[in-house]
UniProtKB/TrEMBL annotation:
InterPro entries: KR_dom, NAD(P)-bd_dom_sf, SDR_DHRS6-like, SDR_fam. This is Short chain dehydrogenase. Residues 5-173 form the Ketoreductase domain. SUPFAM superfamilies: NAD(P)-binding Rossmann-fold domains. The lineage of its organism: Bacteria, Pseudomonadati, Pseudomonadota, Alphaproteobacteria, Hyphomicrobiales.
Length: 233
């Protein structure tokens, strides 16, 4: 359904971004993926037949160069995030600033630099900590909430480009790879058991909603929470 369209996924080398790029490629799109890690990016691009452009969302120049190289596009998806959280009283201000810069200002930079064709779409990815915060994650909650506010504002300012946001709950992606494997599996199993759907999310779940936003020309300013029912239990 995306045949002949150009899709750029910033953060497309792994996780939700990679699943989104892979699905877009299967649907016939010309896909560009971007991320900081050039080696991992190339491997991901080779796997699905996408174009790889290294980019760092914390750099104005890097983001500008990315979209200058892409030219006019139909859809942009921003999943890139560099999260460093911790207890509110003790988390380093350097980590706080880096998290907000990567998650919020990174999306802001992409939205400003991208040349999205009329009727195309920009989809941001936040996270349900915006509505269901937990101790030790205040900066991530704030960045997610700011992204959701930005979505509504840009839906007006960038029209007729459509701007939407997907807010996932607990998703089993490589972002959790730093945890010991046994602890990760135990956490995901316990979390999934407490959800109405009986499992945590996977990257493909979120990619499906991102693609729905690309295709649905009546959707803008929308925020969809995909958390397996976590907001109602």
């Amino acid at each position: 359904m995306l045949a002949g369209q150009k899709v750029v996924v910033v953060g497309g080398s792994s996780g939700i971004g990679f699943a989104t790029a892979e699905l877009a490629k299967r649907e016939g799109a010309d896909v560009v993926i971007a991320s900081r890690n050039a080696e991992r990016l190339k491997a991901a691009a080779d796997k699905i037949g996408a174009t790889a452009i290294p980019a760092d969302v914390s750099s104005d120049e890097s983001v500008a160069n990315l979209f200058r190289a892409c030219g006019p596009v139909d859809h942009v998806v921003v999943t890139a995030a560099q999260l460093r959280s911790g207890p509110f009283k003790s988390v380093a201000m350097e980590d706080v600033r880096a998290t907000f810069d990567g998650k919020f200002w990174g999306a802001w930079r992409c939205a400003r630099a991208a040349d999205i064709r009329s009727g195309g779409s920009l989809t941001l990815v936040s996270g349900f900590l915006s509505l269901r915060p937990r101790p030790g994650s205040a900066i991530v909650s704030c960045a997610n909430g700011a992204l959701e506010s930005l979505t509504r504002a840009l839906a007006l300012e960038l029209a007729p480009v459509r701007v939407n946001c997907v807010s996932p709950g607990i998703v089993d992606t490589p972002i959790r790879a730093a945890m010991p494997e046994a602890a990760r599996k135990d956490m995901l199993a316990k979390t999934g058991a407490g959800l109405p759907v009986g499992r945590v999310g996977v990257a493909e779940d979120i990619a499906l909603q991102i693609h729905a936003f690309m295709r649905n020309g009546f959707a803008t300013g929308s925020i969809v929470y995909l958390e397996g029912g976590g907001l109602v239990v």
